[in-house]
Amino acid sequence: MRQFFVTVLGTIVGIFAFFFVLFLFTVIFGAIGGIAAGMKAKDSYVLSLDLREPLRDHSGGDSLFGPSPASVVDTARALNRAKTDKLVKGLFIRANEFGMVPASAEEIRLAIEDFKSSGKFVITHAQGFEGTSIMPYHAVSASDEIWLQDTTGFAIAGLRSESEFYGGVFEKFDAKPQFEQFHEYKNAANTYTQTGYTEAHREAATSYLTSLFDNSVAQISKDRGLSTDQVKEVLMNAPHSAEDALSAKFVDKLGHVEEAREYAREKAGGKKIKFKSVKAYGPGNNYTGKTIAFIGGQGAVMTGKSSNGASPFGGGGVRMGGDTVAKAFDEAAKSKSVKAIVFRVSSPGGSPAASDQIHDAVARAQEAGKPVIISMGQYAASGGYYVSANADKIVALPATITGSIGVLGGKVALEDTFAKVGYNIDGITIGGDYAGAYSADEPFNQSQRAAYRGQLEDIYEDFTTRVAQGRDIPLERVKEISKGRVWTGAQAKEIGLVDELGGIMKAIEVAKEVAEIDADTKINLKRYPRAKTTSEQLEELFGGSVAMSENLAAMSEIMNLPEVQAAIKARQATKVGQELSIEPTKID
Question: Cα–Cα distance between 12 and 30 in angstroms, integer?
């Protein structure tokens, strides 16, 4: 019996000893793994940025159908964060070869300058600058070194803008375009009524294109250590070979991308250096300091909810919804931690009603003691300027398209067009004569057109009054610089429509100043409205309960599969009212 108890006791001790040793091994190996992971986490790396991929102005957050696209704002903030990160040794860029939005190119250039201010290098490689637009080169001209593949060309020459005109087409088919515009520079209406540029349209377009061109030349001249005449001479005599671009000092070395990448790796410290995309690195936001709210509005201004364009069925456009943006301002205004609001606007305009709704939300936030700073992106024109007009400060990029303070509206009457093929629409009107004003068949009659023009005139008077009050400019002066005319950010600053020139980081700097936050203080930039959870997105999509949303959660994983995303992209590839908007102009 004694031996039995000894045996049992020995077994118990053995078991305890086994688990104790196992515990020790777990702790030791965990510590070793932690140290190894820590060492790996502390490996230095070079950030990479591919400008050949399209950049949205700012992120709307991840959706059910994929991660948020890369954005100009997140890129600028990530590079600002990286300049003080000791693990980041430099930046390697793949240049865009054909064309970029002017304001996006400018923001990227500013981000490169900011990143370089800490002494870190920026190497850019281009597989040719094959397009004629100056903007892809302007975006990277501040790089320390620009490499060019020697078998490619250097074709940058300047800028070109093209506008479509359907006036002649409508005339051939007896369609009657009937538009009212306030005033002669509100040239989006010209697309439907004219066969070519009017004098005012040509004047405004030539003016802002010249401003964009001169700004790019000046910045390239500064970055490359060349005179403006030297830069213009190269542009005026385009295209050039890679060797000619090297001789003209527009590029520093000729070689393939693999060679340039290895050069950047060696410059950073050797073969062990890894590359990490700027998007994966991200802007970060782990600070616990004072909070500045970030509200984004991009795309056409419309009533209802905003959309980031994410849809598995296609056709989902990016839009700035009056309800969404106004609610975001109200939520930020209620937060005690929010010291100021940065409102990023990148919109060509849209609905007057939605624009005024957002304008009013800005005023409510200001009344709650929250200063509002506008950061203008690609566009902040017409309705995009309306929503900005009463902010405490407006910051725009020199290449931002803004202004266009005006309104237009109308319709195309197709009665005679339909008659050509024997098609007819007949109508019955009960009530006032204006009930038939929006018919797509019959033209306005005299009283309808006069009444419609009166409505637009009221909107124009409200718009110019809002600008005069918000900008503290005499109404008479506002009406001189309005009339629907488009300006660049640089021009807008000269005439008082903009306070400061710069990108998102400049806007944050101004917000700190206005909110009396020390310039060196790291702030928490908090997005409003917050990103929706998967369950919330599913519930919104299907209109069902939370339980239903949870049952469908796996759907988002399916949608993110590479083969599903490829099918969606392949499918997408095959596929009247009052407006505060600017002409849909392509600049390249």
Answer: 27
pLDDT tens, 389-411?
999 999 999 999 999 999 999 99
Domain residue limits, the chain:
45-157+238-281
pLDDT recorded at residue 587: 55
Residues of the chain with pLDDT under 70: 1-41, 61-67, 286-288, 309-316, 531-588
Maximum CA extent, the chain: 118
Please tell me the predicted confidence (pLDDT) of residue 579.
Answer: 62
Q: Which helix (H) or strand (E) holds 407?
A: strand 407-413
pTM of the model: 0.84
Cα separation of 484 and 480, whole Å? 10
Contact 242, 149 (CB under 8 A): yes
pLDDT at 86: 96
DSSP, residue by residue, 149-183: -TTSEE---B--EE----HHHHHHTT-EEEEEEES
The answer to whether 297 touches 383, Cβ cutoff 8 Å, is no
Q: Note whether 183 and 214 are within 8 A (CB).
A: no
What is the reported pLDDT for 317?
76
Contact predicate 337/331, CB 8 Å:
no
Instruction: Give pLDDT, residue 32.
Output: 40
E strands present in 79-119: 88-94
Sign for the pseudo-dihedral over CA of 247, 252, 256, 259: positive
Q: Are 373 and 503 in contact (CB under 8 A)?
A: no
The structure tokens 């939300």 sit at 361
Q: Which of 64, 571, 567 lies closest to 311, judged by CA? A: 64
CATH of domain 45-157+238-281: 3.90.226.10
Q: Which residue has the tokens 């300006």?
A: 487
d(CA 102, CA 377): 10
Peptide bond into 69 cis (omega under 30): no
Give the pLDDT of residue 581: 65
Q: How many C-beta neighbours within 10 Å does residue 515 have?
A: 20
- Using left for φ > 0, alpha for ψ between -120 and 50, and beta otherwise, residue 320 falls in beta
The 10 Å Cβ neighbour count of residue 50 is: 15
